[in-house]
Design goal:
alpha+beta; Alpha-Beta Plaits; four-stranded antiparallel beta sheet; 2 helices
Length: 69
């Protein structure tokens, strides 16, 4: 099991968190997604480390921006 934490900008509410969670869970191997809207932190548990480009694409699809990674 692998766990990674990302920073996502633009989230302001529970709906934002739901959108990001929904998109990230479509990535193969993702087991759990936890979003803290206040800090912009998104923690993802997966079977193995995820390619950063896959996480970035999912966050972008949800309408937000992945910082760093």
């Amino acid at each position: 099991m692998s766990e990674s934490t990302y920073t996502v900008t633009g989230m302001t509410c529970h709906h934002c968190a739901d959108s990001v969670t929904e998109e990230i869970t479509t990535i193969s191997g993702v087991r759990k997604v936890e979003v803290d809207v206040a800090s912009g932190r998104v923690t993802v548990a997966s079977d193995s480390p995820l390619p950063a480009e896959d996480v970035r694409a999912a966050v972008t699809e949800a309408g937000y921006e992945l910082v760093g990674a």
